[in-house]
Amino acid sequence: MHILTLGSFLQDLHARNLLQQVTHEDALRQHLASADLAAGGRRAYVGFDPTADSLTIGNLVGIMALARWQRAGHTPIVVAGGGTGFVGDPSGKSAERTLQTPEQIKRNVEGIKKIFSRVIEFDGSVGSGGPLVPSGSGSGGSMVPSGSASQYPLVKNPLGTSGPPKAHEANLGLLLDNYDWLSKLSFLEALRDVGKHFSVNMMMAKESVKERLHNRDQGISFTEFSYMILQAYDFAFLHEHHGVTVQMGGSDQFGNIVCGIDLIGKNFNAKNAKSAKGESEDRPQAFGITWPLVTKADGTKFGKTESGAIWLTAKQDEHDTSPNRTSPYQFYQFWLNAADADVSRFLKTFTLLPIEEIHELEQGHATDPAKRDAQRALAQHMTDLLHGREEREKAEHAAKALFSKSSGDDGPFVLPEDVLSSAPSTTHERSLLAGTGMSLVDLLPLTTLAKSKTEARTHLGAGAVSVNGRVAALDARVTEASLLPGGPSGGVIALRRGKKTWHVCRWV
Questions:
Q1: 282 near 27, Cβ under 8 Å?
Q2: DSSP state, 192?
Q3: Where are the alpha helices (DSSP H) in 294-431?
Q4: Choosing a second label site near 504 at 20 to 30 A (CA), which of 245, 257, 359, 408?
Q5: Domains in the chain and their CATH numbers?
């Protein structure tokens, strides 16, 4: 069991290549080393704007940073951007975001709250808005699946004695919503007490603004231009009211983080200037940490597949119609399919595995990459963490059924509903299956598996095409008998080209 100690947080980030920029690193090390563990250590936060009712896999970098922070004995604070979500962060965007309605933002905030409790242990409250994790319900109460946060326990003391945290422990996390304080800030107060500390020249020099001003036709609105002021105010508010001394984020947030540190210092100077003569307070300590943005070795965007973004929420029930869902099976497959050039970096960036174990996986992968042990460890760990061991085992069973079936296997082929819903599909007239049915040479060009009959014959002749998990011959045909029986698979035929490329034919 890997447990971080108070002094090892920055060292662990260094070992994982997750330190892009640090403000005053020596002072920060001293700040962490002098922390009082019994009082919850130091407090750090990461902000997450609710642009959808779930978070994408890219947000895991920040979530896992807070999880490591907590396992080092410090107190993590998640800030859901119910307030900043009204404005929109211009960082990394080439055009204005579409503004969401208050109802959409509120719904999105509620949707993302549940995600954090899978890897961070909370104190049971969300700002002033009641419990995050219910103490009991008809479904068993806890939102934390087996194999998630409690599998990777927190530090109780620097010597490493560990165990699941109790309600009285000092470094349980907080989940706050910045709408609670930003909504109370009037426009006049923002201009007088916050805006006066920001130079327009400085704001225009920030990369997120400069890019939009000089390289895009669209420019930037005053609304998005003001985002960095709101983020800086968040840090200052959290510093004053919650004792937060560290803000963490992606490297594209560094300018905004520095603005927050500057605002904390300027507020301190203004306060001392108004105070009576005498000894002033010690200057407040505030620090920033950023990590590199995640990229893939082949240059394609991380977290995207042919079927869309990878989300951190699975479909809850039949009434859940949100498009922002990724099944545990698809989540598992995303990590399992990591390229050889990416798997080591993904293990370091996203998992809680100790760095020594990651090095062992790297060595094994270098010796025999075909075994894909590193990818399997990555997929197992991440699916356990986000969805629980039971869902991971179901995903592995489904993968085995899909990818291990051969023409000599016995037993019925079962098409998992995950594949049925996510694979490309076409609809055909069921009457074509009557009698001797339809040849695969004629069917394949009507699917995504072949562009012509010539290409279909080539794939079939090479033994590269399977029907319902069984290799098909060149002269193979599909008939009524080929339809998968019962359940969600009824009325379909599952075709596969090679090891991974599926197509579902629906017959009506």
A1: no
A2: I
A3: 328-336, 340-350, 355-367, 373-387, 389-403, 417-422
A4: 408
A5: 6-135+149-272 (3.40.50.620), 294-401 (1.10.240.10), 405-508 (3.10.290.10)
Whether residue 375 is predicted with pLDDT greater than 50 in this model: the reply is yes
Structure tokens at 215: 């390289």
Work out the widest C-alpha separation in the chain, in whole angstroms.
99
Rounded to whole angstroms, how far apart are CA atoms 93 and 214?
Answer: 13
pLDDT range class, residue 291, cuts 50, 70, 90: very high
Q: Which residues pair with 478 in a beta bridge?
A: 438
Give dist(CA 159, CA 323) in Å, integer: 46
Q: Where on the phi/psi map is residue 476: left (φ > 0), alpha (ψ -120 to 50), or beta? A: beta
Inter-residue contact 150 to 144 (CB < 8 Å):
yes
Give yes or no for residue 395 having a pLDDT over 90: no
Bridge pairing between strands 477-478 and 154-155: unpaired
| Half-sphere CA count of 102, side-chain side, radius 13 A | 2
Place of tokens 């319902």: 468
- The rounded distance, in Å, linking the Cα atoms of 162 and 1 is 9
343 vs 199, residue with greater confidence: 343
- Beta strands, E only, 398-452: 425-428, 438-439
Q: Quote the DSSP letter at residue 168.
A: T
Question: Which residues 6+ apart lie within 8 Å of 345 measured at CB?
Answer: 17
